[in-house]
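DM from R.C. (forwarded with permission)

"hey, sorry to bug you on a friday — could you get me a structure for this? deadline for the figure draft is monday and I only need the backbone to look sensible"
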Amino acid sequence: MTENWVFGYGSLMWKPGFEHIEARPALLRGAHRQLCVYSYVHRGTPERPGLVLGLDRGGACRGLAFKVADERWPDVVEYLRAREQVTMVYRETRTSIELTGPDKRKVPALVFMVDRSHEQYAGALSVAEQVKWVNGAVGRSGKNPEYVLNTVEHMRESGIHDPRLEELANLLAAEAQPGS
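My reply, with the result:
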C-alpha cells in the first residue's frame, strides 16, 4: 500500500491548507531551503516582486511531512498545484524523504522544487539583497515580511534553525520597530 505524503519546508509547515491525518518532522536529502524565488503573486507583484522560499538542489532540508488519506489525495494534489504552481516556478516531483523521530523511516513524498531555468529564480542572494526584495513587497497572500517572520517562528517552534533566515528575520523585525 502506497502512502501519500507532502513535504513542507516553508509556509506549508505553518499553513498547509489541506486536510491531513498526520504531520511528522522530516528530512529531505539533496535539496536545501533558500529564499530564491521572486514572488509575483502571493508575496509580491510582477512590478514589485517579493521573495519566497524554494527548494534548491544540494544539501538537505528539515521540514514537516503531512500524510494524506487516499480518498483525499486527488483533491490535495489539485489544491497544491493551484497554490504552488500559479506561475510554474516549481517542479512537482515525487521523491523519498525520511520521517524523523520515533518511527524513523523513508517514505515517498510530493515535493515542489524550484525550477532554476524559470525567470522567477533569484538564485543565492545576500541577506542585504533579500532585505531589499522582502521589505515593502505585498501580494495576494499578504506582506512579504510577515511570510518570512511567520516561517522562521514556526521553524523555531519545530526545532528547525536556519541561520541565514533567522538573520533576515531579525533584520526585518528590527526595521519594523518604531524608531528604528
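R.C.: lifesaver. The mean pLDDT is 93.
me: no worries. The helical segments are 11-14, 73-84, 127-134, 144-157, 163-176.
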